[in-house]
């Protein structure tokens, strides 16, 4: 592991200086405070800067990829994994043979895999006060599911407008509920809200 020692007027300033030199994010290092900043006599003489040691650790993407590969190995699945980061989210795309078993019914297995990856990675990152948000997709399933949910939202909203009666959808995870809410947020005729507790939380489409 790569490590360096840096100084600054405060601990945070020393840490930022180290991150700049290493070219990494805070969640990718272990931080050890070697010396706290202090002031000398009358706050002038003998002023001492803060000193820290930064040690590079595995990145969130490395931790996530390692976990996913272990899961697939246990299931005798060979997969190719690609990764990119969009904003605060790490996106992992899996391709290979027999991927249907990792998707499951309406993405249930895929969502469970994503949950476990986030849990495993953030457990390690929590030791340094960091956190990562990870999205796992298989063979473009999430994009297809998004389109399906958008069509469902529009179809149910038309039904609600005609009947004047609210419709309660099946339980969905937070990611899928957001798609329904976003699709109908500009509607003049219907409104959406969620009710219940996870994992049985549902979206309700109701007339305004």
Descriptive keywords:
208 residues; alpha+beta; GMP Synthetase, Chain A, domain 3; Ribosomal Protein S8, Chain: A, domain 1; 3 domains; three-stranded antiparallel β-sheet; three-stranded mixed β-sheet; 6 helices; 27% strand; elongated
Give an overview of the whole structure.
This protein is α+β, with helices and mostly antiparallel strands and 208 residues long. The chain has 3 domains: 3-56, no CATH class; 60-139, 2-Layer Sandwich (GMP Synthetase, Chain A, domain 3); 144-207, 2-Layer Sandwich (Ribosomal Protein S8, Chain: A, domain 1). It is 40% helix and 27% strand. The chain has helices at residues 11-22, 60-74, 100-103, 108-125, 141-163, 174-184, and strands spanning 3-8, 29-35, 50-56, 79-86, 89-96, 133-138, 167-168, 190-195, 202-207. A 3-stranded antiparallel β-sheet has the order 1-3-2, with helices on one face. Strand 4 (79-86) and strand 5 (89-96) form a beta hairpin. Helix 2 (60-74) packs across helix 4 and helix 5 packs across helix 6. The longest helix has 23 residues, at 141-163. The protein starts with a strand and ends with a strand. The relative contact order is 0.10. The mean pLDDT is 89.
Topology:
Layout (H helix, E strand, L loop, with lengths): L2 E6 L2 H12 L6 E7 L14 E7 L3 H15 L4 E8 L2 E8 L3 H4 L4 H18 L7 E6 L2 H23 L3 E2 L5 H11 L5 E6 L6 E6 L1
Parallel strand pairs: 5-6
Antiparallel strand pairs: 1-3, 2-3, 4-5, 7-9, 8-9
């Amino acid at each position: 592991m790569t490590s360096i020692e840096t100084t600054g007027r405060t601990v945070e300033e020393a840490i930022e200086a180290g991150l700049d030199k290493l070219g990494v994010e805070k969640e990718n290092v272990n931080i050890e405070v070697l010396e706290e900043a202090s002031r000398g006599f009358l706050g002038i003489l003998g002023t001492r800067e803060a000193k820290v040691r930064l040690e590079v650790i595995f990145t969130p993407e490395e931790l996530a990829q390692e976990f996913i590969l272990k899961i697939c190995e246990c299931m005798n699945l060979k997969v190719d994994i690609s990764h990119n980061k969009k904003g605060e989210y790490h996106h992992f795309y899996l391709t290979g043979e027999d991927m249907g078993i990792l998707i499951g019914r309406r993405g249930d297995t895929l969502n469970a895999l994503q949950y476990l990856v986030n849990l495993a990675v953030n457990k390690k990152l929590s030791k340094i006060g960091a956190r990562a948000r990870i999205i796992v997709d298989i063979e473009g399933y999430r994009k297809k599911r998004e389109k399906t949910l958008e069509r469902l939202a529009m179809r149910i909203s038309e039904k609600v407008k005609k009947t004047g009666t609210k419709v309660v959808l099946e339980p969905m995870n937070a990611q899928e509920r957001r798609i329904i809410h976003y699709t109908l947020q500009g509607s003049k005729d219907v409104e959406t809200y969620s009710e219940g507790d996870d994992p049985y939380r549902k979206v309700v489409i109701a007339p305004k």
